[in-house]
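Work Package 4 report. The design task specified in the project plan requires that, given a folded chain encoded as structure tokens, an amino acid be chosen for each position. We show below one input record used in the internal validation round.
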């Protein structure tokens, strides 16, 4: 009986792992509260990035052909008078990140009078 339980448990964990890993090929939004996605999919530089706005979420996109993985941390609902200060702080974070091989950048978009700021992390198959 214990043997069947162990086999069943191992099989369930293997299936869960496969489902989570194949989901990484789809663009999907998640937050820090989504424990498994956050710790399995979010690269360390984005986990360490300062949270400079009240609302944020993560996305991850993997290109199967090239192996390029693009992860983003998007801050939303930023007031116009705060966007420059937040962008400067994130640029300072990127420029002072200790691993110089890490590729990151920021982008700002305006939507309906509010701003979104996105910090993007690029990782190729050779980076690992």
């Amino acid at each position: 009986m214990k043997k069947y339980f162990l086999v069943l448990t191992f099989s369930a964990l293997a299936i869960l792992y496969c489902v989570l890993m194949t989901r990484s090929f789809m663009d999907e939004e998640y937050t820090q509260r989504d424990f498994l996605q956050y710790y399995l999919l979010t690269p360390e530089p984005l986990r360490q990035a300062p949270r400079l706005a009240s609302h944020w979420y993560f996305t991850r996109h993997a290109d199967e052909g090239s192996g390029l993985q693009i992860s983003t941390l998007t801050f939303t609902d930023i007031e116009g008078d705060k966007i420059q200060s937040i962008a400067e702080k994130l640029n300072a974070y990127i420029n002072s990140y200790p691993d110089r091989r890490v590729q990151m950048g920021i982008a700002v978009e305006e939507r309906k009078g509010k701003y979104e700021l996105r910090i993007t992390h690029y990782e190729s198959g050779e980076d690992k």
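The chain has a mean pLDDT of 87. Validation will be extended to a larger panel in the next phase.
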